[in-house]
Amino acid sequence: MVIFNTFTAMKKFVYTFTAIAALLSSCVKSADEQIVVEKSTTIAVEVAPAESRTFIEGTEIRWAESGEQLNIIYFADDSTTRRQSATHEDYTLTNNCAEFTADITATDGATQYTFGAFYPYAYKYTTSSVSLTVPQEQTPTESSYDPATDILVSENPIVTQSVPNKISFKFARMVAFAKMTLVGIAAGDKIEKVVFSSPAKPAGAVEFKVHEQGTLETAKWYNNYEDITINLGGRTATGEDTVWFTTVPTDLSGSSFTVTVVTDRVNYTKTVDLTGKKLSFERADVAQFRVKELVEEQKPLAYKLLTDASELTAGDQFIIATKSYATSSARAISTIASGTKLVHTDSFAIEDGPQIITLPENVALFTVEKGATEGSLAFKTSEGYLYGNYDSDAWANTLSFKATVDDEASWVVTVNSSNKASIFNEKYSRYVNYYSTSSFNFANSASSTYIYYIDGTATEEPETPEQPVVTPLATPVVTATATANTVTVEWGAVDGAKDYTVVCGEQSVTVAATTATFENVAAGSYKVTVTANPADEALHTASKSEAVEVVVEDAPSQGGDAQAQSVTLTFPTNFPEGATSGGSVGTIYSGDVIISSTGSWRTNNTDGRDCIYIGRTTSGELRIEAQNGKVITKVTLTAPVGYLVDLKWKEYDGFTSGTYSDSWSGECKSRIVFTAAGSSHSNIESITVEYK
Q: What per-residue confidence (pLDDT) applies to 27?
């Protein structure tokens, strides 16, 4: 049995390899050559129920039901041939314990084996140095990052004298996690995608060597790209929307980033200037941040590829291009004539699959009208109607524009199974044709032409009845009150509403009544919104949501059980007995919370400081731990006059961290640790801890 124990900076998981079969084969060479005998062994790979990497559920990282594979890299003796083996696709899960199988080839007579591994599986042409890319296209869930974007690598190879019964790996997580909250997207909008971009280039790859010691020390991260596209598939916005993604480790501090949100209705954008501010995506850690004041913008028009000629009707706008969406770029007919031909535009990009977002300069943008002959169409531009003429005596063709619609300016459009468009003139039995590399002409055969169009409003003979006007419901008038730790929300009924979605902070509920109650709400200030949802979506869309603020205070103590308590320590009054200047601090206070420090005392100094000292280059820390079921809600630290508190904090319940400002607040049931942050040392004169 070969056991792989793996650890990451966030989670721990165990792999177990068990040999269950063996086949013997040999490669026989000439009598004077060394004979190498190899055997293929099928091994079981078990992942114990400790958390692993696939997706986040609450605060746990768990295995998916399918799709997980590892790559095992190994070689015998000093062979330069490194083998790689993927664990099999079929595996079982029991209480989040995953059991895999994989095929390993062993060499008979070998006296040393070297093993390494990485996740996710990817076949590599060479395993001397492996490079894995953090995808620029990511598809997370509402509560977790995209499993396909995680990267784990064994920190050091394992060297054994034979195929062992047990072996343990220590894995390092190579990516950084980002948990971004977008504030201000209209509730009810369908979020198609979010693009996160920064000059700091958060997208890229990591290169590592699993067969050498110290993977983390020798690994190289490459920041290659500025953009990460996060596909959300039409997720319904709530007004505060969490978006997970992964990056290569990147420090954005002092730089900037831009967020672009594409919804079914409009786009939103925000550029955040980080001058003088800190934001860092650190390996194996979660960076949490909020983006507010997103600016609403009109969505750009998108011209989509015509795949069915019947979809092209009066009122539509379109361009005629030279290549299909499968190519990287295309050209289009312009409004510029060159003799008897029309010059094409410069190259332009086909974006987001089969569509064009930005039209090139001088493009001929056609509007569809009814043609002069039955079943034909006319195409009008700013220069007039597109027409073709053929002079059989002079063997001359002309493609240009004229002021009126006639049989020369009438066209029949068909589209084949490859989406190639045929633009045909019945009078001369000729086509719009892409000519050489510079222009379009009127020819007796069709070339590779494609139509990209936007649906318009029919100007003649509408085939469908007029649709009713769809309007948003009236915005509810909302009041919110707080009594102790309970928030009550009330609003007036809205005509045409089926029910109402009520949001208080991060809590949400949908009710048919005109009131909602949120209980056990922690003390603080909250934004409350109510959105009316339509009973008939053919007549109405959801209402807008105007926010009201409500302030929640903890319930007063009853029967002697205090809801909110605090402890304040002021130095030198609360110095522990025997404290001396320069000595270590140790435990300062122990009760419902424990306050301790590995810093040093500064007492009776000539400058009057009586405080805890945490130097900027030391490993000293201040630790606050909750006891007896208590929850820490706020920590306030003060420095002597003229000195600083320059610390960073890490809260171990929610894997959150940050830089200390005036105080720390939140809800922590385990511990908060303050350590040196910047270029200044810290002097702490008093500590106040609030808890409940």
A: 22
